[in-house]
């Protein structure tokens, strides 16, 4: 019995070696695809920096981001977005959340059969996206399905797809289709009632030079030139009318005029796609774009939501675009405490504090009625700071130190919302906040709420 089992193992091992050898040879000849590479590409699936796979019509997919079927969109993430939406709406801002689909969810017909080796299934990929949108809407978050219309109209009259072939970003065509779906949803919301639409025409302009790190990496592994990252490009131009007079009208709105704040990633930040312009065109509402390329899932929202600009003039609509593969639970509750507290904006008057150094202030909190849902807002008083370190001293002498830092790609707002979650009520006797810049008379500490309905 043992000999038979050992023989089978050895035979299986030999067969596996033969299969691997044949597979490696086939991959060298086809670039890892099911048919010979159209561009003489080789070993794309083994690139350490970014593993890729060649599909049909010159469409290249990222294996990790585009082929995956599991996205970390937990129930806690849904609840956090619902809390954010509720906090914003209390102060007159409507959140529209846009989960951005992957290439494979929009262009499944161009995914190579070989993708099944990585577990990809087009039907499951579609259902996973639909499930995220459905769960958000069930919790009261206005989430927009842009994947379905992008699939239904995934190529324009010039033959350009919704996504670039050799890059993972969407084209102007993809941005256009997505923006129309969002515009239709915005116009159906009660918050749109009373909006006087502004007309924006989309006019074709020469495409800007577009650098693509994905294409540059891809080209190193291909003999022939892979598709360039270019497409027909358009800009939004306001249509002047009689009410515009001499043309000096403020196109960004003022007073009670409806405005949109666009928060997003590089998808929203690229001029070649001009997602912001298409949103103005399809919503009829002037827009300010606060998107940040390379800011990851929270870069743009933290930069905008913690700013004085947001607190002083809130938009009617806040559109937040985020790729579905971004994990909104990656950093725990800390970013959400900041987002919700800043969205709500219910903060106490400044707590009495004194300078404890050139860059630091401290305040006694022993008599303050703090809860684990509260946050401490440390505002240096200007945009000069990117880091704040909170040192909390308990009544028993225990000292805890934590920091909040804004990376180089984020805006430096000088405002930090530090969550007291995890600190038992009454356990904090004193707080000292050390900034990376000098403090002055405008530096303040306040206590803010994260639960709607509470009073400061």
From TrEMBL:
Residues 1-28 form the signal peptide. InterPro entries: ALGX/ALGJ_SGNH-like, AlgX_N, SGNH_hydro_sf. It is found in: Periplasm. Residues 53-323 form the AlgX/AlgJ SGNH hydrolase-like domain. Pathway: Glycan biosynthesis; alginate biosynthesis. Keywords: Alginate biosynthesis, Periplasm, Signal, Transferase. This is Alginate biosynthesis protein. It comes from Rhizobium rhizophilum.
